């Protein structure tokens, strides 16, 4: 299939690109490099032996995006391009509404005009806000509590209402939980930026001695050890879910919604312990107040995706931690794992 990947030089898009190429799809990437660099294109090439077509382009620019569609004529689109920081979305909601919703609108217009009939959308656990039940299923109430989550839910609704009017179109919404890890070949991983504040980015900073201790937000949650619990998923498992979702969209209903999680929750302490074991050194902790809006516990039911496709999460938490350490050059590559 000819697949256009928006945001394909970002963290999740680049890993997904390698899986798509390995499975024989023809790929083109559009990315404005607002949160990535063109080096990632070379890294995809080194990893797969194929350098995809690339347009440096802002998807908000409809005319330019049409030129990409005109030139590439994709059958399907996987849409990663978006802003993704919760705190930034609270500071600058308009930028998030514009990029995440208007960007999706531009893309749908192009798909309509150029008859691209399959669509996979990157959504997020943030659409559930503070989940009303565990595990979180696709039927759990969606009630985002920050502008980031609101824009992703609005984009989902936009996609649903558009697809309902087009008989040939099929769409899949994937709601990701907490992706971690890097590609085993060693050329791709999450580029930790100054503004990256997720748990693993912070652990990496401590292990690199850029920061003395890890701030642990909350020690009195109603969880096993009092720290927040999340559903961490290996980036390669997440990448593979996209290719399975594209396949699933061929045969079933017009719009499918899937959670992409493992079904297991791990606490902050679990993650720290696993990194310490993989690294062979301690991560000093500093307990702090809970972050505003942080749920105690979030983990997904991935049963719907498993029932409809061959997808299974195959990598362990240790695989996630080891691959991060290898990518960050904190540990030499070990023996080939099952990745
Ligand atoms: P990322 O920032 O690494 O990748 C996004 C890419 O999109 C970047 O390369 C950026 O340059 C590009 N981009 C942004 N706006 C653009 C625009 N207007 N035009 C063209 N390119 C644009 O983020 P990621 O972690 O790979 O996330 C990808 C998607 O997954 C996002 O839609 C995000 O909301 C969603 N998501 C991410 C996570 C996570 O924890 N990383 C979790 C759930 C959902
Ligand atoms: C994980 C756990 C923190 C940092 C975010 C977005 C979500 C989705 C995934 C995009 C929590 C604790 C963290 C630290 C800590 N992204 N923590 N010290 O908040 O589950 O999800 O990324 O769609 O929308 O909100 O991820 O990695 O920030 O936090 O103790 O320095 O680690 O309290 O329990 P989160 P996270």
UniProtKB/TrEMBL annotation:
Keywords: Carbohydrate metabolism, Galactose metabolism, Isomerase, NAD. InterPro entries: Epimerase_deHydtase (IPR001509), NAD(P)-bd_dom_sf (IPR036291), UDP_G4E (IPR005886). Gene3D superfamilies: NAD(P)-binding Rossmann-like Domain, UDP-galactose 4-epimerase, domain 1. Homodimer. Belongs to the NAD(P)-dependent epimerase/dehydratase family. Pathway: Carbohydrate metabolism; galactose metabolism. GO terms for molecular function: UDP-glucose 4-epimerase activity. It catalyses: UDP-alpha-D-glucose = UDP-alpha-D-galactose. Residues 3-261 form the NAD-dependent epimerase/dehydratase domain. Its cofactor is NAD(+). It holds the Pfam family Epimerase. Its EC number is 5.1.3.2. PANTHER family: UDP-GLUCOSE 4-EPIMERASE. One of its GO terms (cellular component) is cytosol. GO terms for biological process: galactose metabolic process. This is UDP-glucose 4-epimerase. The gene is galE.
């Amino acid at each position: 299939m000819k697949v256009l990947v928006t945001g394909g030089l970002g963290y999740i898009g680049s890993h997904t690109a390698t899986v798509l190429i390995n499975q024989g799809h023809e790929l083109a990437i559009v990315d404005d490099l607002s949160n990535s660099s063109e080096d990632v294109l070379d890294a995809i090439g080194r990893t797969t032996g194929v350098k995809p077509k690339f347009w440096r382009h802002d998807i908000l620019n409809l005319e330019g995006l049409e030129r990409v569609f005109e030139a590439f004529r994709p059958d399907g689109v996987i849409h990663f391009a978006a802003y993704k920081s919760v705190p930034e979305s609270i500071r600058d909601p308009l930028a998030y509404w514009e990029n995440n919703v208007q960007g999706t609108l531009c893309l749908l217009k192009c798909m309509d005009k150029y008859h691209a009939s399959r669509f996979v959308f990157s959504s997020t656990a943030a659409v559930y806000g503070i989940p009303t039940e565990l595990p979180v299923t696709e039927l759990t109430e969606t009630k985002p509590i920050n502008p980031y989550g609101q824009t992703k839910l609005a984009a989902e609704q936009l996609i649903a209402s558009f697809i309902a009017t087009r008989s040939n179109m099929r769409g899949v919404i994937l709601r990701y939980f907490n992706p971690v890890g890097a590609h085993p070949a060693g050329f791709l991983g999450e580029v930790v930026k100054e503004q990256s504040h997720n748990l693993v980015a912070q652990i990496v900073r401590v292990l690199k001695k850029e920061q003395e201790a890890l701030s642990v937000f909350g020690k009195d949650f109603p969880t096993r050890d009092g720290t927040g619990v999340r559903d961490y998923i290996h980036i390669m498992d997440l990448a593979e879910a996209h290719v399975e979702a594209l396949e699933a969209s061929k045969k079933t209903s017009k719009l499918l919604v899937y959670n992409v999680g493992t079904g297991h929750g791990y606490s902050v302490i679990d993650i720290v312990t696993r990194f310490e074991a993989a690294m062979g050194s301690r991560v000093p902790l500093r307990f702090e107040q809970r972050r505003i809006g942080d749920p105690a516990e979030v983990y997904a039911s991935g049963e719907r995706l498993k029932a409809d496709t061959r997808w299974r999460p195959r990598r362990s938490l240790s695989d996630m931690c080891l691959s991060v350490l290898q990518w960050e050059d904190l540990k030499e590559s070990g023996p080939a794992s099952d990745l």
